[in-house]
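User: quick one, sequence for these tokens?
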């Protein structure tokens, strides 16, 4: 795999997608107090769940993030390679069919 953005190559890379400061402001999301047993909030003061986002916004978060990080040149190369492999497999299967039916490439 080729990594374009070195800061995102680590296996520990994490990017907050759904509940960001910008989305909190844009959608006036309200924070709820953190339960004593919940240690997920770094501040320990309040928490906002992804479910607080409007459904239409939540549905676009992951696809938009994937699209933003997608390298179209790499994608095009992968798709071309897949197409070449598909043609090669079909060619081999066709040849195998000729061989099993008693014909060979010489027409005999």
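Assistant:
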């Amino acid at each position: 795999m080729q990594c374009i953005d070195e800061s995102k190559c680590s296996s520990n890379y994490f990017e907050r997608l759904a509940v960001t400061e910008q989305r909190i402001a844009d959608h006036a999301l309200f924070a709820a107090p953190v339960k004593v047993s919940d240690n997920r909030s770094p501040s320990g003061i309040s928490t906002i769940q992804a479910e607080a986002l409007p459904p239409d916004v939540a549905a676009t978060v992951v696809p938009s993030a994937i699209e933003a990080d997608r390298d179209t040149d790499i994608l095009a190369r992968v798709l071309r390679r897949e197409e070449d492999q598909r043609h090669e497999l079909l060619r081999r299967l066709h040849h195998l069919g000729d061989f099993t039916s008693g014909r060979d490439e010489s027409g005999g």
